[in-house]
Hints:
The structure holds two protein chains of two kinds. Chain A has seven helices and no strands. By secondary structure, chain A is mainly α. Chain B has helices spanning 8-14, 19-31, 33-42, 45-49, 54-67, 69-109, and strands spanning 134-135, 137-138, 145-153, 156-165, 175-183, 188-196, 200-208, 215-222, 227-232. A five-stranded antiparallel beta sheet of chain B has the order 2-9-8-5-6, with no helix packed on it. Chain B has a four-stranded antiparallel beta sheet with strand order 1-3-4-7, with no helix packed on it. The chains are: A mainly alpha, B alpha+beta. At the A-B interface, helix 3, helix 4, helix 5, helix 6 and helix 7 of A face helix 1, helix 2, helix 3, helix 4 and helix 5 of B.
Amino acid sequence: MDDDAELLRALHAEHGEALFSHALRLTHGDRQQAEDLFQETLVRAWRQPHLMSPQHGPVRAWLFTIARNLAIDAWRKRTARVGEVITDELPEPPPQFDETDRAVEAWTIAEALSRLSPVHREVLVECFYKGRSIAEAAARLGVPPGTVKSRTHYALQSLRLVLAEMGVVR
Amino acid sequence: MRCEHAFDDGAYVLGALSPSERASFERHLAECATCREAVANIAVLPGLLGRLSSADAAAVASATAEFAIEQRLPKLVAAVGRARRKDRARLVVSVLVTAAVALFAGVTAGMARIPTDSAFHVPLPHSPSSPAMVPMVSVAKTYATAELAFEDTLAGTVITMHCAYPMLSEFHRPYLFRLFAIGSDGQTEQVSSWMAAPGEEVWLTGTVRLNMHDLMRVELRAKDNSVLLAYNVP
C-alpha cells in the first residue's frame, strides 16, 4: 500500500505535469476528459510497474503511449456508435518527448516518410494518421492482419533509421 | 528465437492494437525484456509522426506513389522512344546533309564516306548505379524468389538483392533469411539477414570485401542454414 502510494507519488512528481498537458491535447482541451484519462493512465502504469523503471526506457514515453492508446479506445468507441460517419477528431498525437525536445518541422517528417517504401508509408497512413486498427487496415489494404502487423513493425524500424540518418533521433 | 509478439511493438505504439490484443501484449511485456526494449526504441516515433497533419501525410503518400518508378517507368520508356525517333529523324537529316557535303567535297578530294547504320544508334542512358539484376536459382523447395546485382568497387563487391516472398494462404509467419557470399577461396561471408513475411518484398544492399572475380557464389539461406536459392557468379 505504501509502495503503491510511493510509486504514484514519484510518477506524479516527475511526469504529472507533462502527462496532464499530454492528456489535454489528446482530449482536444476537454479538462474533465483529460482528468479521467490522466487518472486511468496512472492506474494502468501502476499495474505495469515493470515498465516504470528507467532502465526499461524512458518512463514518460511509456506513460504517453498508454495515454494515447486509451484515448484511441475512447475515440473508437465514440466513432463506432455513429457508424461510418466520423464526427470526432482522432486524438492528437503526443507532443515531443524530452529526447527530441527541439524543433522538428512537419517537412522533416514529410521528408522522412517520403524515404520509406510505399507499403511502409501506406501502413503508417492507415494505422497512425487515419487511426485504423490492424483489422481495419488489413481489410482496407487487402492483406492478412499478420502482414499489417509486421509491416507496422518494419515501417517503424525503417522510420527510426531514416530519422537517425537525418539526425532527428539518436 | 524471436517471440510470437515480436511484431506487436509497432502496432502497439501506433495505437492500432485492439484493447484485448493490447492487454495481452502488455502482460507479455512484463516477462519479455526484448519486447520492452523494442517498444522503448520506437515509443518516440508517434510523437514525431504527429508533427505532420493527417492530410499532409496522405498527400505525401499519394504524391510519392505517383512518383514511384513503377508508375513512372511506362511513361519514361514512351518518352525515351519518342525522343529516340526524333533524334533519329534529326540524325538522318544531318547525316544526309553531311553526306551530301562530303560527297560534294569528295568529288574534289576523292573520298566520300557513306555513314554506316551504327551512326543511327542512339544509346539508352546507362546508369552505373543500377546494374542489371540476375535471378537466383532455387536449390530447395521455397516460395521465395530473389534477384541480384553486383557492382565491383574499390572497397569490394556491392551486392544489391531484391527478394520477394509471395502471399500464401497456408503461411503467415515471418521467416528469417540470410544472404551469404562465397569466395573462390571457400571463405563465406554473411551479406545480410532479414525477416520476411508472406506478401513482403525486401531490397537490400551489402558490401563484401571480395572482388567480383574472387566471388564464386551467392546463397540465400533459411534460418537452419539450408540453401534455398543460389547464384553462381560466371
